């Protein structure tokens, strides 16, 4: 029977409806992305003149490289005053901050799952270094889009870091829920307590290593939605050291289960400004379907593959 579940971290609702997997044309079909064309790859070593100047590189020759996005959503702050045509209806201000590209590897591969563990650890260490470089930002949001269906315009594996001077509403809501949980439990950490309970139950746990826990969220947004959290609560991702090895394991499991690396969106949550209680995490959402009228119109997701079933299948791998 379909079930409405509430995500403990965000408060958002998901309908878990496994019966909808029996609809015509609703299976999980994944086609491998075509190989990167070196001649058209601006992120390849030797093509540095096709991007903005290097902000950070791990050496020469480089294995991970960082530069400003050529088409930024955020730009450094200016003295432009806020534009407020009608204070009750229309409010606008400059989109101030930083928008960086982090090329995860010199090799022309399309997915993090094709990297070695050592290379992914180097990339993740660079994600953390760039977050620390923007310590004054109100919110730091790092993403990886893989595949055209997930919004990747350039196939060569890369991350993007948004350093914003505001805290988005979705993250502010999580901040409030972490704070309320701490008050209600006299200092408990919402994600830490969630991980502890999930490990006790085991039904949605996929894998555990010395640093982190991998699980399918209780109110998964999509089939094979994954959440990676530290075993010991740490507020800021940029201050941590672990997680890359289990992230590599997670991506390899998805690839093995689906027959190819799926188009996916990955993001990193780290402590935003104003949060006294928080814990970092990484979420991975494969794009195995398209959001439709219910999702776009109501904000309620429908997941046709129960997270308990997804966890069991991935765990067996």
Automatic annotation (TrEMBL):
It comes from the Bacteria. One of its GO terms (biological process) is galactose metabolic process. Transmembrane segments: none annotated. It comes from Solirubrobacter pauli. Coiled coil: none annotated. This is UDPglucose--hexose-1-phosphate uridylyltransferase. Keywords: Carbohydrate metabolism, Nucleotidyltransferase, Transferase. One of its GO terms (molecular function) is UDP-glucose:hexose-1-phosphate uridylyltransferase activity. Residues 24-59 are annotated as: Disordered. Residues 3-168 form the Galactose-1-phosphate uridyl transferase N-terminal domain. SUPFAM superfamilies: HIT-like. The active site is at residue 158.
